From TrEMBL:
The chain crosses the membrane at residues 178-198, 205-231, 237-256, 277-302, 308-333, 383-407, 538-558, 565-586, 606-627, 660-680, 692-717. InterPro entries: MMPL_dom (IPR004869), Mycobact_MmpL (IPR050545), SSD (IPR000731). This is MMPL family transporter. PANTHER family: MEMBRANE PROTEIN MJ1562-RELATED, MEMBRANE PROTEIN YDFJ. Its main location: membrane. It is found in: Cell membrane.
Amino acid sequence: MSTLLYALGRWSYRHSWRVLIAWLLLLGIAGGSAAVFMKGTDNSFSIPGTEAQAGLEQLSRSFPQASGTSAQLVIVADDGGRVDQAPYSTAIEDAIGQLENLDGVLAVTDPFDEMVTGLVSEDDDAAIVRLQFDGQATDVSAETKDQLRDISAELEDSLPAGAQVAIGGDLFSQSVPAVSLIEAVGVLVALFVLIITFRSIAVAWFPLISAIIGVGLAISLILVSTAFASISSTTPLLAIMLGLAVGIDYALFIVARHQDQVRDGVDPEESVARATGTAGSAVVFAGVTVLIALIGLSFAGIPFLTTMGIAASVAVAIAVLVAVSLTPALLGFSKGRVVGWKRRPRRAARRSDAAPDATEGTPARVRRGFADRWVTGVTRHPVITTVAVVAGLGALALPATTLTLALPNAGMQPTSSEARQAYDLTSEYFGPGFNGPLILTGTIVTSTDPLGLMQDLADEVESIPGVEEVALATPNETADTGIVQLIPTTAPDDPATADLVRELRSHHDEWLEQYGVDLKVTGFTAVAIDISDRLGEALVPFAIFVVGLSLILLMVVFRSIWVPIKAAVGYLLSVAAAFGVIALVFEQGVGADLLHVAKTGPIISFMPIILMGVLFGLAMDYEVFLVSRMREDYVHKVRALGGLHDREIAVGAVRSGFTASARVVTAAAVIMFSVFAAFIPEGDTAIKPIALGLAVGIAIDAFVVRMTLVPAVMALLGDKAWWMPRWLDRILPHFDIEGEAVERELALTDWPEPNSTAAVVAEGVRVSAGPTTLVEDAAVRVEPGGALIVTSEDPRSARALLLALAGRAPLEGAARVGGHLLPGREAWVRAHVGVALLDGSTQPLRDLRRALSGRPRIVVVEGLDALTPGSALEGASVALRDAAANAPGLVVLVSTTRPDAARALLVDAGWTEIGEVDVTVPEAAPSEPEPAGSTADTDDPESLLFPRRDAAPTDASATEVHA
């Protein structure tokens, strides 16, 4: 990965205009496609497999006039007026006539109809006109909604002064979020932070431009997808929020690394390549963690949430691609002008414990920044710091124990919204339950008295605590399905309403046995409750998934047990504290007015799972960038001291690593906090708690957990922080998070010698298959046009060496094949080295010809003995001769147990420079069980922290063959 990114960074730097134009073209094509094909977002919520959803589907088939979306007009008379008297009654009657003519309206309920009860308040000072539409809210056209608003406005104008008419209901319960100028403040804050961080106005624009292009492309693709998928209106806003935050931060990490390197004197082109290969590798890892967490939202099994996670992951994936390609291209425009203005020298502070100055005999003046002073204080008192942080975050998380969940409704909208006004008026004059009626439905085809049956069921339902009244109990026109519509005593998002739904469902078996009706509790309120319950049930499995994933990923990165455990515990503390702050604001009302919270109460149902997923990825970003630098410094110090392990060395590495990375991590956290916080004041009711949770979570995780708790715990652990059992190290894959392959390639640029002509060269090569070593300390060298014959007592050893040199098997040591270093460049080697595995092949000559096709520069022939004397050998000689004629300088590596026959074949095919090497089979070392708690693994820091890191070339005693 790192070597690929290294090459990509260099190419992008050299072709800046091409890369920029390519991304702009993609943005233009996606934007144009969105303008042509997008069909708008869909705010309907459904959850397959639940009782409420099954009930709605049953109603849509057998009772369509009760299954579609609904709306209502709430008419409130002025002081002293009565809605059942003129001019109110006549005006309402005229309005009903107009409403019945609207497109898509199935029925309009007249509150004064003799067959209707409950739609006029007890004091006759308010009335409700209900409309039933055909289909869901998304099926109602914008034109019909506008006509409905016009009729409502005309009705209010015709009534006496002081009267109120508000329109609401399920049709208007969801608001469409939009981006306002307030959100732009977050971008401006990010720009200011970037200017301070880079000390350059020009350079500060690079991460911002990258992020904006990436977000524009992601949103365009999301809007295009509305043509064939159902996407909620919250989805694009979440993608904008995440795309901006991670897009700026990912580009920031690469630009900051590049700027530091240029300031140290590295050539700008080389610096961009290195920064993309090193910091870019960390960016890819960080992006992958966010992607996995977002895709993990599908754990809940809720389609709209799965779609939201996939759409947000698209924004993150594009942010990663833009960061590793467009950012180097933008840096190519600036060339070496990225240093920025010089920092004003700070007055040095005198330290009494500093070393005496050699010339004056007085303590030397040592400059210490805030990061240095902070980490020194934290690591000097690690126990106190750890206890204080854990206790403080634990206390902040306590309010989260009362957190309740619900889907958004009109009651959560701002008071300026007409739907919110209708919601409040309905609650005031009819009771809160009128805003969320429940429906019981079932098949009654076996009943001989449908009307009597429905009345009996209504009496049963009305006797249940929590039911205000039964508004309707009737069979359909064909008398095969019945519905009971009831009004709860509590609001739709009240936990008591959810308890009522569960209570109604608990009577299912009783009513089935007594009345023979399989009743389902449904309605939009029941659907919302089922979604909230499903999301609540998914939190624990999702948390296990996220925490388990973090443990595995960080074990892969840091080759440690304690570092991942510490990171996972810190993540849980951050999430719990963020939940606590959300509960304080949105449920208890602390600071609610300051943040423009329209109404305190339950939190939007999908907030916890989205917050957990997103915060996991972002927390891992900070963990990687901070701890990887500590790990790097520790390894370097241990090597410099000849492998000495000591707690003081580990603590010193914690301090130096923290100081080196604190500036960039601080800037990244401030930027993310600013972007998320900008969506809080004027944000949509659905996005506001998510934005607050992310902003608080980022601030707590970055500054309290990662930059305070982490160095304290690392200081407590000392050198034990980097311990891992050997057996676990063997089974875990490796991810080059810090671009070790790039550093290795730079160190071996002139190996085996400057301007080397060797086609294949290797030193100190070791090849293993699990715990078994097949090749030990092998060395070869083949010039262009040469050949090499590999023999061994164990054919597996010869095969292993050839496959490793062909990029098909992992090796340790140093090897350069076709000018590309192994390991690290396996992808290129595999693509350019032909391989013929003849041992065991049914048609070895055909396989040889296939390997020689395509004019490869190097060919590996394993098991040459499979070619029988006669026509097969002659055919092989011809094939090799023809391949050499088509590709001058062709190199052939063969394995055989008959070297004389192989040499004769190669000579016959035209090769004159032929070398031979015998691979010595390593002696198997006796294996002993590792004692529990053994620290034998830690004897060698290189094997501990880089257990499979490629060894540098050595003057090995193995035979080196020049062909």
